[in-house]
Specification:
Layout lengths: L2 H7 L7 E3 L5 E3 L1 H6 L6 E4 L1 H8 L4 E2 L3 E5 L5 E6 L2 E9 L2 E4 L9 H4 L1
Parallel strand pairs: 3-6
Antiparallel strand pairs: 1-2, 3-5, 4-8, 6-7, 7-8
């Protein structure tokens, strides 16, 4: 992979994701939406979706489906749409939604 070309994408106005190290790449919200993911994803329902966009981490008992081939990061799917990317730590899925993008459902709905 040519890292120099990937670094230039940010200058073109497309933030696709970020490298955590040489082997681990985490997709941004937009990056996850651009891909048609068939493996390394989790599917969530309405209740888990509200928790996730509010900035909370997800737990294994909230997940409807897991298709994981041992990847460091998993795409989050809701209603058959890719919405973001998480990393798994035991039975918890860590939320990477930035503070400015989190929703307060008491104010929104």
């Amino acid at each position: 992979m040519d890292l120099e070309n990937i670094k230039r994408i940010n200058g073109l106005g497309i933030y696709f994701g970020t490298f955590h190290d040489e082997l681990r790449f985490r997709l941004s919200i937009e990056g996850s939406q651009l891909l048609n993911v068939e493996k390394n994803y989790i599917s969530i329902g309405d209740r888990a979706f509200k928790s996730y966009v509010a900035g909370e981490n997800l737990f294994l008992n909230e997940i409807d489906e897991i298709v994981d081939n041992g990847a460091n990061f998993l795409v989050v799917k809701y209603d058959n749409e890719n919405i973001a990317c998480v990393s798994r730590k035991n039975d918890e899925f860590l939320n990477y939604v930035s503070k400015s993008r989190k929703l307060d459902f008491n104010k929104v709905f």
